[in-house]
Design a protein that fits this description.
By secondary structure, the protein is mostly helical. It has one domain. It has 5 helices and no strands. It starts with a helix and ends with a helix.
C-alpha cells in the first residue's frame, strides 16, 4: 500500500472513532423523538454529563462513580425537558435551547471554581 492509502485509511478510522459520542447522542435523539419529544438539548446534556462525570471521578477517585454522576445528571436533564415540554406544554425548542445555554454557563463556571492552577490558558499560551 502506498502512503496516500494509509493516510486515507487512518483518517477514516479516526473519524469513526471520534464521531462515536455524536452517534450515541443521535441515537438518544431518535429515541426521544419516538417518545414524542424533540430533544434540542442533546449538546447540553452531553456537556453536563461529561463535566459531572469528570467531577465525580475527581472527587471520588473512582471512574465508575464519575460515570454514575454523568448518567444521573443526563437523566435529570431529560426528565426536566420531558416534564416541561409534555406536561407543562412549553415549547420544546425553547426549553432545549435554554438547557444548552444553562449548561454551557454552568459547566464553565464550575470548572473555574475547581481549577486550582490559577492561570488563564490564554496567558499560558503567551508566556511560552
Amino acid at each position: 500500500m502506498d502512503n496516500f492509502s494509509v493516510t486515507i485509511l487512518t483518517w477514516i478510522a479516526m473519524s469513526i472513532r471520534l464521531a462515536t459520542p455524536l452517534l450515541f447522542a443521535a441515537l438518544g435523539g431518535i429515541l426521544a423523538e419516538k417518545a414524542g419529544v424533540f430533544n434540542f438539548a442533546l449538546e447540553g446534556m452531553m456537556l453536563a454529563g461529561a463535566f459531572f462525570g469528570y467531577y465525580g471521578s475527581l472527587v471520588s477517585g473512582n471512574p465508575w462513580i464519575g460515570i454514575l454522576f454523568g448518567l444521573v445528571v443526563g437523566a435529570i436533564t431529560g426528565l426536566v425537558l420531558g416534564y416541561t415540554s409534555v406536561k407543562l406544554g412549553v415549547s420544546q425548542m425553547v426549553v432545549g435551547l435554554g438547557i444548552n445555554i444553562f449548561y454551557l454557563g454552568l459547566t464553565g463556571y464550575f470548572y473555574r471554581l475547581i481549577d486550582d492552577s490559577g492561570l488563564n490558558t490564554v496567558a499560558v499560551n503567551f508566556l511560552n
